[in-house]
Amino acid sequence: MSESGIALGIDVGGSGIKGAPVDLDRGNFAADRIRIDTPDGATPDDVCKVIADIVERFDGAHGHAPIGVTIPGVVTRGTVRSAANIDPAWIDFDVVAHLHELLDHPVVAVNDADAAGIGEMYYGAAKGHEGLVILTTLGTGIGTALIHDGVLIPNSELGHLELDGHDAESRAANAAREGEGLSWDEWAGRLQRYYSHLEALLWPDLFVVGGGVSKKSDRYLPLLDLRTPIVPAQLENRAGIIGAAHLAAQHR
Ligand code: BGC
Question: Which domain holds residue 30?
């Protein structure tokens, strides 16, 4: 952990790249978040420049703090491996090596849902929970994090389970609800199918539902009939930044 108990979290999203220093004792931002629009095309080089820009703005206060960066794709040993909803140029891009060339900070990169899962596990809706916690983010796609007794099993990618002949996220993500104009009731039917399938395969102890639409969870969670408790995320759009910062500090 950094000496001051501070690490920086950077969340790379489709419309914005957001970063903040995180107080790891409190699990909250230590200063206001900075947001810069995601550059058109969101190529790896351009996104890395924006990340470096955000980090440099915090350098006065947090010179060599570890940095955790969230990526909306699979990440193994610092390299991005998949690009379901991002530019294909990210595939096989070593984002950690590239950021090391730009920045004098220790850097880790982590899947966005995994980061949110860690954030909720240590500071939010799943805090202290034992057994298997599955966090799902319902957004453009479906991201998933599997955490067993506090240990993350990274890159679970359960949003891409095949369900009724479809990639599950194409039917049950929030983008499907918006794109197809589904009512809450209709969408809940799809979520029921998705979460029942996850239940049958993995027997989790808790589901945590994240993503922007988790703010409206009262519209659809009460419609679901599952044996597993299912609760909305608590950290809202801070979960990824906080979780990535936590992982960066642990990795040091
Ligand atoms: C990607 C995941 C990501 C999720 C949410 C999916 O399409 O495959 O890696 O976590 O979207 O961004």
Answer: 6-112
